[in-house]
Design brief:
Helices cover 27% and strands 20% of the residues. The chain is an alpha/beta fold. The protein has two domains: 1-63, no CATH class; 64-98, no CATH class. Keywords: Metal-binding, Zinc. InterPro entries: GroES-like_sf.
Amino acid sequence: MRIKNHKGWGKTVILGVEMHGSQLSLNPYEFLRGRSVIGTLFGGIKPKSDIPLLAKKYLDNELSLDEFISHELSFQDINKAFELHQEGKSLRCIIWMDH
């Protein structure tokens, strides 16, 4: 991952994660000039309070998530689900335990 180098100050927000093991290279001088870097995983939600709220909104049909599901596979095909995701061929996959 590379952060564009612009003179001045500002905040860089890193969303999600890069490929496992990749490193982020930063110039320490940028921090001395007022730049900051923060990260967020899952958009910064608070799991204890936000996930039950989102689940309720989904169950009450106030939140539409079904169009984000690209595949549904049985548990026996779980390795296929990982392959699809790593190849960029799957957005979200549901793993059915009883199929």
